[in-house]
C-alpha cells in the first residue's frame, strides 16, 4: 500500500482539474492507502483559500482515507491564522505553501510557523527554480522549527541539488513528483531512500507514472520506504 503526499482537488485557473471521484477511483486502482489532498489554484478561493479549504474539510469527513491539507496564502496573514485554527479543528494533518502561485517569500510565511509547529502540522512546500521557490531560502526556517516536518514538492526542480542539501535537515523530506526519471534517481542516491516520500501531483502527473519511476529505480525491498515507511514516520503511524 502507498501513501500519496501530493494531490489536488478542484479546477485550476490553468485548466487542470481533479474531482474527489477521480482521486478515489485512482487510489483504488493503484492501491493508494491514503492521500493528502489540498486545493488547486482556483479562481476566487476566498481569503487564504478559505472556501476551498472548507471543501477539503467536507471531503475528509466523508472519506477517511483522505488526509486534509489546508492551503495558506501568507499575503493574508490574519486569514491564514484563522485557516490554521480551522484546519486543526477539522483534523487536518498539514498545510500547503505555494510561493510561486501566491507570490510570497519565506520571510512572509515565517510568522505562521510557530502556530503550525505548535499544532504539529506538516508543511508541504512548493519548491522549484523560480524566484521565491528555492529550497535554500527556507534553510533557517527548517533549522529553527526543527520539530516540524517539511516536505519539499518537486524536490526543487532545476535546483534539485539545493533540495538534496535541505534533506540533510532531519525534519526535511523530498517529493519527486513531475521530476524526470534521471533526476529522481540522482535524488534517491544523494538524499537517500529514507528522505523521499511518494507524491503524484495529480492532475499534473499520474499516479501510475510516478509509481513506475520507483519500480524502475528501486528493488521492492527499498521501495517500501518511499511508498509507505517514510510517510508513516512523518505521520507518527
Describe the structure.
It is a single chain. With 237 residues, the chain is of the alpha/beta class. The protein has one domain (2-234): Metal-dependent hydrolases (TIM Barrel). The protein contains ten helices and nine strands. The chain has helices at residues 20-30, 50-62, 77-89, 106-109, 113-118, 139-144, 160-166, 181-191, 207-217, 220-234; strands spanning 2-11, 17-18, 32-39, 66-72, 94-97, 122-126, 150-153, 172-175, 196-197. The chain has a nine-stranded mixed β-sheet with strand order 2-1-3-4-5-6-7-8-9. Helix 7 packs parallel to helix 8 (181-191). It is globular, with a radius of gyration of 16 Å. The two termini are 14 Å apart.
Short structural description:
The protein is of the alpha/beta class and 237 residues long. 41% of the residues lie in helices and 19% in strands.
Amino acid at each position: 500500500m502507498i501513501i500519496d503526499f501530493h494531490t489536488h482537488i478542484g479546477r485550476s485557473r490553468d485548466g487542470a482539474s481533479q474531482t474527489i471521484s477521480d482521486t478515489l477511483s485512482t487510489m483504488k486502482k493503484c492501491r493508494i492507502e491514503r492521500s493528502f489532498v489540498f486545493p488547486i489554484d482556483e479562481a476566487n478561493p476566498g481569503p487564504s483559500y478559505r472556501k476551498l479549504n472548507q471543501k477539503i474539510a467536507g471531503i475528509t469527513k466523508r472519506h477517511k482515507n483522505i488526509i486534509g491539507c489546508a492551503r495558506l496564502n501568507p499575503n493574508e496573514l490574519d486569514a491564514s491564522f484563522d485557516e490554521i485554527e480551522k484546519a486543526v479543528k477539522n483534523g487536518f494533518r498539514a498545510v500547503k505553501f505555494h510561493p510561486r502561485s501566491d507570490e510570497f517569500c519565506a520571510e512572509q510565511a515565517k510568522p505562521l510557523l510557530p502556530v503550525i509547529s505548535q499544532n504539529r502540522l506538516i508543511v508541504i512546500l512548493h519548491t522549484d527554480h523560480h524566484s521565491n521557490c528555492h529550497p535554500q531560502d527556507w534553510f533557517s526556517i527548517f533549522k529553527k522549527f526543527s520539530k516540524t516536518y517539511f516536505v519539499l514538492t518537486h524536490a526543487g526542480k532545476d535546483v534539485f541539488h539545493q533540495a538534496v542539501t535541505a534533506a540533510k535537515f532531519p525534519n526535511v523530506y523530498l517529493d519527486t513528483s513531475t521530476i524526470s526519471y534521471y533526476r529522481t534517481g540522482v535524488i534517491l542516491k544523494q538524499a537517500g531512500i529514507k528522505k523521499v516520500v511518494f507524491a503524484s501531483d495529480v492532475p499534473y502527473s499520474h499516479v501510475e507514472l510516478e509509481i513506475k519511476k520507483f519500480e524502475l529505480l528501486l528493488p521492492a525491498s527499498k521501495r517500501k520506504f518511499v511508498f509507505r515507511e517514510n510517510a508513516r514516520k512523518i505521520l507518527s503511524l
